Amino acid sequence: MTSSTSLITPELVAVDLVAGDRTAATRQLVDLLAAAGRVTDADGFAADVAAREQQMATGMPGGVGLPHARSAHVTAPSLAVGKLAQGVDWGAPDGPARLVFLIAAPAEGDADHLKILAALARRLVHESFRQSLLDAPDAQTVAEIVTREVVPS
Question: Start and end of every PTS EIIA type-2 domain (predicted)?
């Protein structure tokens, strides 16, 4: 199964996420990871992400949420992406998030998730990158843009 090695696949993208708060938005992305077999315990991983969010809000300027966690429940480094028509407060100074990137990393892995986080953050400062994701018509396009722009080759 080659898709398990890809950081992001279309099945890990929700282009029409609807959520009232960041907990609900995160949970929907966690469920995508679980459905894809990348998370063995959705509740456990959701709790790990929530604990990380309590340490520090992961909202970024430009309408972005970047929840992330290392967890024993994660089987492979993964990135789930959600696009929200109605933004959700993620603790960013400039308002709600419309793009959410959930980074899931295995607990016993190395610092790969930090490399992913850094690469993603470098791209997210560019409005053109954020806009290309917001404009993407489907999950396949979102996955292709992120893979091309973020994933180290």
Answer: 6-149
